[in-house]
Amino acid sequence: MEIEERQPVPAGSGRAAPPGPRPEGPSGPRRSPLARRSLIGAVAGCAVLGGALVLLLPPDRGGAPRGAPGPVARAVSAVGAGAPVALPDLAALIDDREARVRARPRDDAAWAVLGAAYTERARRTAAVAYYPKAEKALRTSLRVRPGGNAAALEGLASLAVARGDFRTAKRWGEAASELAPKRWTAYPALVDAYTGLGDHKAADRALGRLLALRPGPAARAVAARVYRDRGRREDAAAAVSDAAAGAAAPSEQAAFLTQGGDLAWERGDRQEALDHYRAAVDADPGAYDALAGQGRALAALGRTSEALRAYRAALDGRPAPRYALELGELYDRLGLGAEARAQYDLLRELVRRDRAAGVDDEPVLGLFEADHGDPGAAVRGLRAEWRRQPGIAVADALGWALHRAGNDKEALGFAVRATDAEHGGGVRSALYAYHRGQIERDLGLSGPARRHLTEALRINPYFSLPLVPAAQEALVALGEPPAGGPPEDSGETEGAEGSAGSDDPEGSGDAAGTPGAAGPPGAAEASGPAPSPGSPGPAAR
């Protein structure tokens, strides 16, 4: 097992967190009532939650005096709870456990904690070289103690979730829960794994078990994700507010505030989202998702200079493909083509880097290729992804890629799947509604197209810099519905879901072509330069 050598910190390593852009004026950040309640409640909840979480792992005997935990003890507590760790504390924990396994190479618990810490470092900073190190450490723990090692099994499940490998996460998570069914720490990874595989009934069962075993802040945050996916936005907001109020540490509180900001953004509340994201960065300067969220909200507010700074800070601390895509689209919107192309090149480079470390970025890459690159390549990659893990996000991305490649009939089946509550697509997503509306428009289904494009703008009028104007233009082109109630609204899309393989829970998803084929038939493989993302698509042209 190779132990990390101490080296000078490169840019983007996450050890030093760049500050996010600050609001102009002397008054400081404007916080929403939810964010203020979260900040007050977090102080009240710290001692109790922190004391409980540390029981999940062996006590750390070399730290600070009792009642004043040092960085290693704080990090052990958070890692054991599956909670975010402050980056300086995480570095201290890694140093400590590396020293421990050098001195005691058969300490299975130390190896398991080290593997979990490596996973957290990679997840927080996108320093993806830590993912293979995490896997080696966790497998070493299993080799040292092959039986009864629930901590290592849970660590491998969490590692797989962080890599976007939901089948592997399911396998390890189920092994951990079977070994120790009353350990709550296996269930968050299982919820994410089942969700990524499109098995929403199993996700609900895992969430129920988690809430029964540990109804605390971490469980509430997981519940908020599930409620959001089911379209229960008010329940999701309440759950994440409760989670933030009970957070044990600033880094955990920052993660929950970021989650609250995402919910506010998805319902189109730009200022509320910005308030949450700023509160998150105030709590933890290493909250890079919140920095990217600030960029998103600031761009929607028309404060583009601040938005650019926020995105650059986020990319510097956590070079993630999604950030590069969003920054590239902001540059495109500003007419800065060369800068946009540089971000798109960076995105491809980051995807290659991630793939070498076992990270699955296919949904983000597919949407990028569909809108800015090669739609045929997007279809091929996303079709293979759908066979591996047929989640709702993959259904949406594959449907859009098929549309951009000119195969609207098959595309509609996937778009319906992504927005069908019966099969888990109940999330109130402006992007998903927009994708479905444009596909329906190109199929001549004017009534459903008008309905879904209007819904997209109602859910979030700012959901995408390039796509909001496209939705508005499409609605103008569609015009008003005929007086007296249009026959076009009489259910033209019924039955379309079958083309997405809706009866195939394992996700072959190729009913319009050959099941298991590497790509779509005929015109669906059309490649070459993609039309601009704002255009209505090949059929409309």
From TrEMBL:
Region (Disordered): 1-33, 478-541
Transmembrane segments: 39-57
Biased composition (Low complexity): 496-529
Keyword Membrane appears in the UniProt entry: yes
InterPro entries from the UniProt entry: TPR-like_helical_dom_sf (IPR011990), TPR_rpt (IPR019734)
Pfam family, one: TPR_16
Keyword terms, alphabetized: Membrane, TPR repeat, Transmembrane, Transmembrane helix
Biased composition (Pro residues): 530-541
UniProt key word Glycoprotein: no
Domain of life assignment: Bacteria
TPR repeat positions: 254-287
Name of the protein in question: Tetratricopeptide repeat protein
